[in-house]
Each structure stands twice: as structure tokens, then as C-alpha cells.
User: Fold this.
Amino acid sequence: LLLTGLSVALAYQGNMLNIGGEGQLTLGALASAAFAVVASPLPWFLSMPLTLLVGALAGGLWALPSVWLRQKRGVHEVISTLLLNYLAIYLAEYLVLGPLGDGSAMGRTPEIPTGAVWSPLVQFGAQGVTAAPFMALVLCFAAQIWLSRTVWGYEVMAVGSNSSAARSAGIEVERWQRRIFVLSGALAGLAGALEVTAVHHRFYRAFSPGYGFDGITVAFLVKATPGWLWLSGLLLASLRSADKWLQLVIGISPNTILVIQAVL
Assistant:
């Protein structure tokens, strides 16, 4: 949720809306799982970062057509990213049931080797906490510092605030929009890669319960400010974690959580 929220927030700083986080996350997860299996002979200190990099690259490349269509054909990125979500989901389903699957009918890749798995830092019974959420926090704070304390970040903010004024001031508006949108897709792809390496240890068909779409809520609850995404991310994560409790203890449908999210 932190990384998909950061993906939406960064694109919005450049005056663009990335609604394609779900597709970018899905392909990032699939690409990282497939790479980890193929790269199993590599030592862990190469396999682990390269697996994350492949996931981020897959997400970034899947975002590239949308910004190209916006700049060359005038197609709004909301339309193109939304439609690319479905292409990504069905493409991943085909691949995981076919050439990238483990041969079963469950729609999953083979389990990734231990060299690419993030081991828990803290263990609570059968559950553990890896470094993945802390990495996401660091990236959010780093993005906040980059936007507010660097010249490049200032140029991105200028492009988002008034692209005509930014262009008159000599800022390369189109180039910055391409960069920031591809980076936005890469963050969503990285989120998928971390889900594979730190949580599931393989890619499952439809493994995401809507993290890409929830990232939109995470971003806009804090006005797309990267430094405050931890607060909205924690809120939505708590709501998601409470759905079964609501059903078992209080007898309320877990879909109540979706209603609360919609109201928010």
C-alpha cells in the first residue's frame, strides 16, 4: 500500500494520474518471480537486488505507453492506464497458466529459490516481519526530501503546478513527465516484487486484492504528500486486517470495509 500510494503520489506531483498501479504491480510481481527462478544459480547478494530491479523495470515499462500516448496522441493517461490494467492481468494469467507456470492448474509460478527470499527480521509465531515495509517507508521519506529539497524535485513540482510557466522557465516538461511516470510505474512494479520475495515466495494468479487501486486512496487521503503516506497506508492496512474480525466477532460483513473505503 505504501509503494502503490507513492506511485500515485509521484505521478500526481507531475500533474498526471497513474490509475495503472494494479497492472504494473501484477507484471512486476510476475517478472520478479520468473527471473528469480531462472537466476537461481546466482548468489543471494546478486539474486535479491536483481529480482527487485526486474520487477521495477517491468512496472516502469508497462507505464511507458501511457505517457507516450498522452504526449503524442493526446490520450488521457487515466483511460490508457485503466485499460492497461486489464491487459496486464489477462497477460499474467495466460503466462502463469502456460509457459511461466509450475504445471499445475492453480495458476502459479514455481517457488522462488531461497537466495531471493527476504527472511523475517522479527518472528511472531508462524508470522514474521521482513525489511520490506521499512524499505517502503524509507522510499517514501526519500521521495519527500527529493521533491522538497532538490532542484530536480523543484522542477517536477513546477511541472505539476503550471506546465506552461515551467516550460517558459526552461524546464523540459515532456521529459520530466516521462521520467516521473515511468518511475511511478517502477514503484508499483517494485511493490509486486516485494510481495513475491517477502510474502508469497511465488506469483499466484490474482494474488493482489486490489493494492494498485487502494494506492489511489492512500495517496489522496494525504493530498499526495509522500512524507505522510505512512499514515494513510496504516489506516487502510488496518481496515483490511479488520475485515475477518468484523465477520467473526461482530457478525458484520467484511464488505463493510469496502464501504468505509468508498466513504473515505
Notes: The longest helix spans residues 44-73. The mean pLDDT is 92.
